[in-house]
Design brief:
alpha/beta, Rossmann fold, 3-stranded parallel sheet, 2 helices, 26% helix
Length: 90
């Protein structure tokens, strides 16, 4: 069975629906310290066309503390790598 315990980074790459809010919170709580969260893309950051609908929340920032925001839709691989390297350098 897969577990988030050995994970270094939790990457959210899509809109956080209201049904997924608890699951994302449990996955974050099960991770070992330091818990790093990356919001990859506009949808994860709450700037998607589905925002405000009955099923989609306000973005991952409303659920978890986010360490890195990668903007654009979709984010380029170079942006993702640059942000992950910056997180690992901290």
């Amino acid at each position: 069975m897969a577990s988030p315990r050995p994970a270094d980074v939790l990457t959210v790459s899509g809109p956080v629906t209201r049904q997924m809010t608890q699951a994302v919170g449990r996955a974050h709580a099960a991770m070992a310290e330091p818990r790093l969260v990356v919001s990859a893309g506009d949808c994860a950051g709450g700037k998607c066309p589905f925002r405000g609908s009955y099923a989609v929340g306000e973005g991952v920032e409303a659920v978890l503390p986010v360490d890195a925001h990668i903007r654009s839709c979709p984010p380029s691989p170079e942006d993702i790598i640059r942000h992950l390297r910056a997180l690992m350098a901290r």
